[in-house]
Amino acid sequence: MPTDRGQAGPTISEVAAEAGVGRATAARTLGGYGYVSPELRARVLAAAEKLGYRANALARSMSTGVSHTLGVIVADIGNPFFAGLLRGVSDTSRARGFDVIVLSTYEDLREEVAATNVLIDKRVDGVIVASAALGRDQVAHLKAAIDRGIPVVLVDRAVAALDLDSVVIDNRDAAREAVEVLIAAGHRRIGFVWGPPVAQAPATRRELLTAASRNLWTDGERLRGYLDALDDAHIPFDPRLVMVGPKTEERVVTEVGRMLALPDRVTAVFCSETDGMTGSLRALRAAGLAYPEDVALIGFDDSAWAAVMEPPLTMIAQPVHELGAKAAQVLLDILGGGEPAREMHTLRSRLIQRSSVAPPRPPG
After folding, report:
1. Largest Cα span, the chain
2. What is the Rg, in whole angstroms, of the alpha carbon atoms belonging to the chain?
3. Do residues 280 and 297 make contact, with C-beta atoms less than 8 angstroms apart?
4. How far is it, in rounded angstroms, from Cα 315 to Cα 338?
5. pLDDT tens for residues 67-112?
6. How far is residue 289 from each of residues 34, 190, 261, measured CA to CA in Å?
7. 114: Cβ–Cβ under 8 A, 6 or more apart, which residues?
8. Which residues are CB-neighbours of 225 under 8 A, at least 6 positions away?
9. What is the pTM of this model?
10. What values do phi and psi take at 245, rounded to 5?
11. Phi–psi pair at 218, nearest 5 degrees
């Protein structure tokens, strides 16, 4: 039975006495380092269970240099995308004997820096991060972790300034395939929702891509996929059909409303984020229009609600669990002695075609 010691649990010395072994033997067994014979190990573990011994993970990590803990930094653990990704990280890590500490940043670089410092102080063995860093002047915190011997793996988005392993999906190809479906249905006036967060709309394609390069890598890749599909179909780029400004659902309502009010309005919209789809649906309702009769829709991040909408929405499904599992696998392999490959590990997404795409209405 566990000893009654208030909040202080039994010590290693008490476990050693109960097992009839030396303190050093008990410490090696409970700390998971050094050699202990199977017989003595079994006695120590039985004694620890009897007394209710709980190892001090921080003290153990200070003595062994290993905490068996991974740190994960994401934008928002309440977001279903990141929740699924974290499940993949947790399942894979737990299977290999590692715990996980999770911190949210809300895409705020200052929060990311603070979270990284917390994980360094917690002596985690490695870090998986969906980073909000955009340039070389914003990655010092991640380099600090690496300099301390803590490997870092990027997930969901790459950071051009860092030569690290990253685990992502095929954002550009997925966006291109979605827009190709709209083009095949006969659409040429196709809006892009969730563009660069700039105050003034870029007037040229070059200006748009320059603005995108200063944005999150994921968003830039999806915009490039949209442009690829237009190029392949010889459809001229129209900057009026790309949303710009703050990345909020309210901004989407405003921007899609503007596209719908054009004399040659959009007949289809590609949404590269969930909030882009919900904002687009609100804008259509406000304009008294319906999908797919008036405007065709395709979005990113398939979910249960997209399938039960009437009509059901055509969406891109991301392998979120696999994304997290692969990131954890890459990091754990490095911790196991493997050399960092410093490569981009790309997983395939899947376009789920439902009923939100139809040909454009004939003019007149």
Report:
1. 93
2. 26
3. yes
4. 37
5. 789 999 999 999 999 999 999 999 999 999 999 999 999 999 999 9
6. 70, 16, 12
7. none
8. 171, 172, 173, 174, 175, 176, 177, 178, 179
9. 0.83
10. 105, -170
11. -60, -50
Beta-sheet pairing, 314-317 with 350-352: antiparallel
The helix-helix angle for 23-31 and 57-64 (nearest 10°) equals 100
Amino acid at the residue 146: I
Asked if residue 219 has pLDDT above 60, the reply is yes
Please list the residues that pair with 269 across neighbouring strands: 191, 297
259 touches 241 (CB < 8 A): yes
Quick one: tokens of 158?
């790459």
**H-type helices in 243-348, by residue range?**
249-260, 274-286, 304-308, 320-335
Domains in the chain (CATH in brackets) are: 12-55 (1.10.260.40), 69-169+320-347 (3.40.50.2300), 171-318 (3.40.50.2300)
How far the first Cα of the chain sits from its last, in Å, is: 84
Assigned token pair, 181: 């479906």
- Going through 105-218 in order, the beta strands assigned E by DSSP cover 126-129, 152-155, 166-169, 190-193
Neighbouring-strand partners of residue 72: 102, 128
Handedness of CA 278, 272, 136, 342 (dihedral sign): positive
